[in-house]
Amino acid sequence: MLVTILNIARIHHLQNDIFLSLEMYEEALSIQRKTSSLLDISTTLVNIGRLHERLEHLCEELGPQHLEVSTLMNSMGLVFCQKRWYAKATASFEECVCIRRLALSIADRDMATVLYNVATAYLETDRFDDALRTYKECLYHERSNSDSIKSDGVISTLLNVLGTYICCRMNMTPRCVTFKKQ
């Protein structure tokens, strides 16, 4: 199984699908830490490092403020969130937001997605004020790019904002608030 996971990771790497490659290498590393030698673990760590090297090359090739770099930073943030490495995830998402703000002067739907991701990372680390502020900004971007108030996730984002606000004010964790479908 481990060899298959490593091969899949390598294929994704060769296809420049850094998000999936990093995810597979991280899965392999998790297995190796339980069953493999230090040499095998170090090889996987080198491969993970190569993905970060790809990010450096992308920055060099296109410039650190290119939207492609922003997309990669968002993808890396998602991987970090999946691993519950919220500090790294937040840093990746925040860098993505900075790049998008510099590159685009208008509200865009992709920015709403990234803001949702960073707000969720804030929420997971109990940074409620930051989460609330960022969810509100996400809502602005979604509304600016939708034909109807009920389109694609605007309502769910609003519920997240309200739920976060209620939880902050009642000193509750957000996971304990449930909204009933009417």
Main features:
single chain, 182 residues, mainly alpha, Methane Monooxygenase Hydroxylase, Chain G, domain 1, 2 domains, 8 helices, 0% strand, globular, disordered C terminus
Write a structural description.
This protein is mostly helical and 182 residues long. It folds into 2 domains: 62 residues, Methane Monooxygenase Hydroxylase, Chain G, domain 1 (Up-down Bundle), CATH 1.20.58; 96 residues. The protein is 77% helix and 0% strand. The chain has 8 helices and no strands. The protein is globular. InterPro entries: TPR-like_helical_dom_sf, TPR_rpt. Keywords: Repeat, TPR repeat. This is Kinesin light chain.
Distance between the termini: 45 Å
Instruction: Give the helix level as a range of percent.
Output: over 70%
Count of extended strands: 0
**Major pleated sheet:** none
Q: What is the average per-residue confidence, as pLDDT, rounded to a whole number?
A: 75
Number of separate domains: 2
Keywords: Repeat, TPR repeat
Protein name: Kinesin light chain
